[in-house]
Every structure is written in C-alpha cells, then in structure tokens.
Design brief:
Elements lengths: L8 H21 L6 H13 L6 E3 L2 H11 L6 E5 L6 H8 L3 E4 L11 H11 E4 L4 E4 L5 E6 L10 H11 L2 E5 L7 E2 L8 E2 L6 E5 L13 E5 L4 H6 L1
The structure holds pyridoxal-5'-phosphate (PLP).
Length: 234
C-alpha cells in the first residue's frame, strides 16, 4: 500500500463549494497579486497571532529572508539557529549572505535549547560592550540574531531565548513555518503568547502541507518592530 506524502482530497470534499466560490471571486476581480483577499488574510492573521500587523509574502522561506533583510543582517553577520529543522531555516540565513551558527536542541522538545545558545555564546564569542557587538571569536563574524524554530505544536523556550537576545542586543526571528496558532506559556505573562508574536519578527508558511495550507506557495511575516526609526537603529 502506498501512502502519499500529502493528500488533502478528503478535507477538500468538505469545503469544496466554499473554495470554488472564493477562487471564482478572485478570477472575477482579476486581483491575482495582492489585492483585497490578501489584505483580508493579513487582517485576520495579525490578531489571531497576537501581532500588530501581518504582511503576506510569497513563501515561508522568503518571509525568513525578508525579516533578515529588514533587520539589515547580511555579509559578515551571523545568526544562531537550530540544525533540527527544514532546510529553509539555515538556507535563508545563507541567502542573506550571512552565516548560520548551529547550536543543539533540547531533547525533550526537539526545539533549540537556550542553555546551548548561552553555552555557545560564553565559550565561543566575546561581547564588545562599547560597540554593543557579539563577536564569534574564531571567525570574527558579528552575531546579530537568533532564529528559533517552533516544531510539533510547541514553541521553543522563548523566555530563555529572549533573555539572551536582550542581554546581547540580538534580533529574534521566529521561524513559525510549522506553528501558526501554537501557544507559549511565558512566565512573564498571565495568558499564553502565540508563535510569531514574541520575537522582532514571526514568519509563517502556507505551503500546502502546513498547519494552514494554501493553494500553492505562500507565507506571512509578523514584524513586531516595523517603524522606520527602529529599523534605522539596526
Ligand atoms: C521550519 C520551516 N521553516 C521554513 C519553511 C519554509 O517554508 P516554505 O516552504 O513556505 O518556503 C518550512 C517549510 O517548508 C519549514 O518547515
């Protein structure tokens, strides 16, 4: 017996009429790129994720790249991340001309371990407090960001990650490609926080096999700091 990697036919049967109507509306409106449907999705995703705003993009991969570019992360910079993820996490860092630094995962959750991030920073990096720069000792690369990934319906340990990011002035880009709607019980908040609302940027994928799958490639970025003045500071 062959089990297909992805087969949404059974689900499609239950929402077939709704989907056909929505596709017809797009065809009639001739808004094939962006337009009111994308705006409506952005306006629905932002509050659902507990974010100020959401911006539709062409894929989860491009969302990660756009977040890094918006944070001015590029050549000579480094991003701490996890090796236990889909290729696009490390791939987006390299596409931004920067270097991924892989640290280990927590064996209980399979998400990046803040203890391992701290150990990497303390053992292999130095903090230049005057310039506010975290520098990787061996390569001289300036570490600018942490990119945690949320897997299996549970967020990475964001309290621990944000504490390290705050200590060293690092940007946090959450790879929530597999985690839209996942909740994180922060020790600092009474109500759980949603994936994508805790770092400076959240990134989601609507690849058809994802939790919220689309009709082709698609993604969303939820920037927490998006005012031009804040960007200029980076
Ligand atoms: C953890 C993770 N990050 C990034 C991506 C990239 O998303 P996309 O396929 O929409 O480019 C995916 C999924 O493919 C993923 O699982």
């Amino acid at each position: 017996m062959k089990i297909p990697l992805l087969d949404l036919k059974a689900q499609y049967q239950t929402i077939r009429d709704e989907i056909k109507e929505a596709v017809d509306e797009v065809l009639e409106s001739q808004h094939f790129i962006l337009g009111p449907k994308v705006e409506a999705l952005e306006e629905a995703v932002a509050p659902y994720c507990g974010c100020q705003c959401a911006v539709g993009v062409s894929s989860g991969t491009d969302g990660l790249l756009i977040a890094l570019m918006a944070a001015r992360i590029g050549y000579g910079h480094g991003v701490i991340t996890t090796p236990f993820t889909f290729f696009a996490t490390g791939g987006s860092i390299v596409r931004a001309f920067s270097r991924p630094f892989f640290v280990d995962i927590d064996p209980a959750t399979y998400n990046v371990d803040p203890g391992a991030i701290k150990a990497f920073v303390e053992a292999e990096c130095r903090f230049e407090s005057g310039a506010g720069r975290l520098v990787h000792g061996e390569s001289g690369v300036s570490i600018r960001a942490i990119m945690p990934v949320h897997l299996y319906g549970q967020c990475a340990d964001m309290d621990g990650i944000l504490e390290i990011a705050n200590e060293y002035g690092l940007v946090v880009v959450e790879d929530g490609a597999q985690a839209i709607g996942a909740e994180y019980p922060s020790i600092h908040k009474e109500v759980p926080l949603r994936a994508g609302s805790m770092g400076h940027f959240g990134c989601f994928s609507f690849f058809p096999s994802k939790n919220l799958g689309g009709f082709g490639d698609g993604g969303m970025v939820t920037p927490r700091i998006w005012e031009a003045s804040a960007m200029a500071a980076w």
